User: Fold this.
Amino acid sequence: MIICILAGGPLELVPDLNQYKDRQDIVWAGVDRGVYSLIRMGIQPHEAFGDFDSVSPDELRFLQEHLVHLHIYPSEKDQTDLEIALDWAVKQKPEKIILFGATGGRADHYLANVQLLAQRGLLDNPDTQLILEDKTNILYVKTPGTFHVSSLRGKKYISFIPLTLEVNGITLKGFKYPLENRNITLGSTLCISNELLYEEGTFSFEEGILLVVRSSD
Assistant:
């Protein structure tokens, strides 16, 4: 099972969801205005979460009339709407969770959502692959190990960004800018904007947490 979540970020940054729309292995969830956007796209969300302060009263009434699993929360709370939805998704133990509409707009939400990739994806349920995707980027987080990467159409660049104070023993093979057993620190730009030389490459590291970003030209 794959769970796809559409948050309330700018729709111009959301990729074409038609590629996921009719897949039988996908369960859809919406967050705040993302719920209304899903319905407008012809996608019926299985679950809906939020305080819904970004929809009009008429739009909220429409959602209440057309959705069974509509979870409405107060505006003043200790979690963002997306974090609440992500907590639900992780508990379902899916193979993969893909977040859309979670980039752009407010910088505080964007940065918090990137941190959620590490918190929920690695600590709460490491068997679930957690991905944040928009029109130009795919982000995911890795803990130490060796990983294969393949070329992706439209995603020329690969960046490796430390999420911990240090990431040790990083090795990149099959890349335009290879590395061998290097240590990088939080804030380093050494591994930004790399490229695969061939259809496949590998990266590995021994300690720390890495944010992997696949970006378009």
